[in-house]
Specification:
The chain has 221 residues and is α+β, with helices and mostly antiparallel strands. It has helices spanning 11-22, 39-44, 63-73, 84-119, 126-149, 160-174, 184-194, 200-203, and strands at 2-6, 27-31, 52-55, 58-61. Strands 2-1-3-4 form a four-stranded mixed sheet, with helices on one face. Helix 1 (11-22) packs parallel to helix 3 and helix 4 (84-119) runs parallel beside helix 6 (160-174). The longest helix has 36 residues, at 84-119. The mean pLDDT is 96. This is Glutathione S-transferase family protein.
Length: 221
Amino acid sequence: MIRLFHVPLSPFCRKVRLSLAEKKLEVELVEERYWEKSTDFLRRNPAGKVPVLKMGGKFLTESAAICEYIEESHPTPSLMPKDADARHEVRRLVSWFDDKFHNEVTSNLLYERVNKKVMGAGYPESSRVKAGAKAIKYHLDYMGWLLDQRRWLAGDTMTLADFAAAAHLSALDYISDVDWNRNENVREWYSKIKSRPAFRSILADQVSGFPPPAHYADLDF
């Protein structure tokens, strides 16, 4: 049995969950309070971060590396194109969302509003929340620009880049921090990816003390 040590609203964990689900790989989800730095968890990943995937008797860490491992060990259906230039574009966009988007948006909105409370780490910093609310507008506009030229974010087929973006945006949507009316291209793209069977378990997530908004699991939002 594949086992994923995760946090429900972590976009990095969600990206791995989407990859596994798209390839129809059954997984046991184990919630991990990684901030408590338990001895057992640090044995699995000395970096003290989620996700950690137990697969084939190995403990795999770092979400991008995990997703590429899943892709290489279970290549169908493919989430990476065969062409070198196209593969670079997928990796560039995965890095964009997991680095730039995460630092400018996710960490300022989701982490301030949810993670701090869950971890008992104090109150949100209003300056960071304001910075995140401003930055997400730029990122939604950039996604809209990409989708003006492409069917999916990295090209004509759905790839890991779409899952990386959807992982962050779905976590933010859980706390109603995405203005889906800002860009019609982005709204249509998210509606399309949200309706995939791979998304079902993510839409069923519940975080204690943070009920999702009414539209969260609505496929016709």
